[in-house]
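Below is one such protein, fold included:
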Amino acid sequence: MLALSMSEEEVENKILKGIEHLVCIAVVNSPHRVTISGDEKTIDEIQQVLSISYPNVFKACVHQKQIFNPICAQAKCYSSVIGDKINDNIPVDTAIIKDEAANVIRESSPHPVLATSIRECCKLTNQQQSSPLILLTLKRKEDEQKTLLTSLAQFTTSSHVWQQYFHTRQILPMKNHAEYFDNFPLYKFHLSPCWYESKGSSIQRLANRIQTHPLLGIRQLNEQTSATWKSLININLPQHVFLKDHKIQDVILFPAVAYLELATAAC
């Protein structure tokens, strides 16, 4: 596939004219961003010609109409989302412009290639002064968990989301819901402790309540200088049944590495 910063009309008249049987428009992302697909050799030739005038031409490998055409009489490929054939042109721009009320858009893809196109389409609607909130699921060469958590944070602090929440639920008898949101802090909460607590004090509060290790059990409070733990291990209980898996000649043995792990965790 080849991504072009050109309109659909320009592509049809200047590039595809005469070679429609080899290359076609795969996706119309925005009024000025089109992706074409087709014969690999023809795509390479088009890229070489356009790279002189359009240095930002981007090529990606994918399967579209020209790949399916040779066996189109036998193969019937339909989208599981909309039920239409997957070898049809995908008018992404039409779908975005049609939904004028959308102010939060999620792009589920390995890389956010449509973010610029989405902003361009939303500007054409002239319905909102600010750009929509575009949430990413993944981004190339970036940590996946960090990307998802960043999108979640942007979503939860978006005024559009809170406005929609207040308008669809009877929370408070207020005429102006924005007033309630304006009083909500937009900065992240600082979760660092505001006082110093010694290790002994922390142990005294938590030792008899929380089981910190599946085998060590609960740390005991006593006069000994070294840590003391109390645990009841029963290999017939679900939480300890894994101990039966280590056998030598049908004899259940506690592994040496497990002793080392217990010693490390108990310190």
Q: What stands out?
A: The chain has ten helices and eleven strands.
